[in-house]
Amino acid sequence: MRLENVELSMVNQAPVAFIVKASQTQPANGSQSMQLELAFDKDGKALSYQVLSGGNSGPDPAWPDKDAVTLAEDALHYVLDNANVPEIKNFFDGLTVFNLTKVDLKGVIVARGQVHSSLTTSKLNIYVQLDGTFISAEVVP
Fold first, then answer.
1. Which of 42, 56, 75, 90 sits in a 20 to 30 Å window from 27, CA-based?
2. What is the mean pLDDT of residues 32-55?
């Protein structure tokens, strides 16, 4: 699965506390993209999973150095490491969606992790080099 999007939903329907849905990009062979839905309890223990059809359409970005999961982890470390910074706290406490895309940053192709939060309408963009090295971050409206 080529990770493209991760969505977190709080459900609080005991014993399930939240659901994580990970979506893949369109596979190179043209088959349908898929989603993996995982249910967790309040302590983060996985309770169940199911594979669903209907991931994101469009071509796979073909990450050259690291895979999408590693790049997502590298970007999300910024949120974890800055969880007590007032500008970042809402994204740590209320993270709902994380998207990873290739973007052009000042003439260089990089990975951008975008974090959405239930606590703000702003978005947090985190830029990392394709080897996972942190570049910068910004909060945008």
1. 75
2. 87
Q: What is the pLDDT of residue 1?
A: 46
Q: How far apart are CA 48 and CA 79, in angstroms?
A: 27
Listed in sequence order, the residues at least 6 apart from 46 whose beta carbon sits closer than 8 Å to its beta carbon are 38, 39, 40
Q: Encoding tokens for residue 46?
A: 């996985």
Q: Which tokens hold the place of 113?
A: 């992790």
What's the distance, CA 22 to chain centroid? 8
Amino acid in position 100 = L
Average per-residue pLDDT for the chain: 87
d(CA 124, CA 81): 14
> What percentage of the chain reaches a pLDDT higher than 70?
89
* Residues 8 and 93 sit within 8 Å (Cβ to Cβ): no
